[in-house]
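look at this record:
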Amino acid sequence: MTNSQFLPKDSEKFADKIFKSPPPEFLSGDQKSFFTQLIQDNPPGYESQIKELKNLYSGDLGNVNPFAPEQLNKLSDSKFNDFLRRSNNYADKNTPKLDSLSDTSGTEIVLPDGESSNFFEKVESKTKNYFNKVNKVNDFTTNMPGELTKLTNSIGGASSSFVGQISNALQDSLVKFIDGGMSKLAASIFSANPIASIALGKVKSFQSSLIEPVGKLFSGMECLTSKVTQALGGVISDMLTGMTKNMINAPTCAVQQFIGALTNKIGDAISDSVTPALAPILSILGPIGAKFDVKSAVLGGIDFMKKSGDLFKCAPPAKQTSSKKYVIDGGPKKDKTQKESQGLLDQALNAASSASSAVDKIKQGLDSGVPQQISEFEKEYGQWSIFGSQVDEATDQGIGGGNCYTGNNFSCGPATIDFFGGTGEGASGRVILGSFITKFDKDDLFGTLSKTAGIMGVEITNPGEGYAEPPLVSFNDSCNQGYGAYAKAIIDEKVTSPTYGQVIKVVILSEGENYPTDGLDEVEAFISDIIIEDPGSGYEDGIISDDIVPIIRNGRVEAIEIKEQIPYTSLPELFVESETGRGAVIRPIMSTKREDRRTDPTQAGAFKVIQCVGTFPVSEVSPQTEQESVVRGSTTATATTTSTSEATEDIETTTQSEATTEESTTTQQTTTQTQTQTSTPVQQQQSTPTPTPPAQQQQSTPPPTPPSTPPSGGGGYGY
């Protein structure tokens, strides 16, 4: 046994001490690729590391040399941008990091909407923020007691409205119970007494006897919300302390368990306050066997959540254009739908009822005939996995299915995209990762290497339907490590289009960085479309790149000529270089699929021209065009895609004369995003073209969404 067996496999950091991973006998594929790239890039400040690598692994790396200046000059724009990005990454690793003066970045907040308390969303966001802060590996300055106190106070404040909703619903249920009990008692009295006057007198007597206890009951409940909320301070603190000992993250299922346990204690507090005042009423209604279990009503017998807040309104929801959930430095995030919030709260309440019943049975020794072992904490709050309970059949209480993992997330999964708002639904997509960066520790090159990326595009997997305006877009990952990616969705606003009201494109405004790749390999993407957001002004000429050429008319960038679909590994910046003009904003739309029209590398000329029409004479348009829709700014405009005069396989000649050749083409292209039908108008051999009238398309209207039926309620009482 060697001493190396006792060395840490990966780099471990504790305060200022660093334990370096030993050099492996053989390099892995990822290590060989990264070290080769490092030597070729030859960044300043890495001389000693490169020398060590070449000495240790001469067979793999001995013949690798840095890029010569002429090699860098020959790199394509895309490859050179990759080189610059790697150089910045090396510089970052070579520069000491200073702790941020603010810890608010990444904090999730729930904005008020003026209609509902958003109790579940508030607790979930506040709890996640707490665990994100207290579990930072290198943060030795976090004031744990202070953070726990702040979270306790924050959840306590949010729970006030929650308790108020319970109290109001309980009052409604008690009114219904007393009214029903009195009606049943009256019926019983009249059936037992054939003389109506005698029966009526007894009924009045019972009614009179109910006046005082009913009045005391409801007058005492006027301050119930404040009393219970004040008593929750210590309860919430105890529960959060138990969670901190047993969790390092807060998934939704853990928040459900927390709310379930909290509701259990709320039920206890309300029952302790209301039951004594209810006893005289139950005594009066005793002849009919009336019973009312306050805690049962709170936990499972009352549909109290369905009568309050925006979650349970019968009217259609208001037009949604944004979200109540916002992440500082991350923008708006998709919040939960009404149906999702309702389901999560229902599960929490059912779990609270189950936990309460289980503890009662254990206390009474009903499970095995003898009292079972149970901690004082479990007697108070029930058995839950988030508090460290080990009883398999009880710890999750039906939440999470036994898979509510509250430990460290070893796999973040790939980045995802959410569409929300815009009145529509159903849109989804798959992100295209680009700008891959290898994460490493300069002081421990043989430690774990990982890759992160930016987001250079989105491929639509489901366009959705019913969008009256573009939905908002957010990018996410389960580890919350990615940041800075922003995008906007484009919908088809043409009423006669078969894709009307659907998401047809996503424009990436910023790639962002540090998004997990989850082991995905770097892919090549191609420019499938271009959005001219602003044509600029004052241009006499201009250059973008060898494959992308601006077409300038009247000082504006009126069209973009795509000469060839070349591969990119990052989002290309389409900037018009010119000594005269300024202001043009051009956005590429990326796709992992190369269009079939240019599979022959020997073809010359333009692959596609995207052109804004209406600002120049029609006679200036190229002789052969295809009609398609593009978005310019915030409005939908007509655009023209211009092909070369070369004949291709997807063009079918239908008629020809001495002066004019008319070609008509109907090409149906199916991609992962949308299905587009295009046609070419008249190709003229004369100097003045004759436009072809557009074909009529059948209007497509999305079907109306049927109204949802609210579920029926229950009760915690019986006769």
Remarks:
- Confidence is low (pLDDT under 50) at residues 1-17, 304-321, 613-714.
- The CA atoms of residues 619 and 688 lie 6 Å apart.
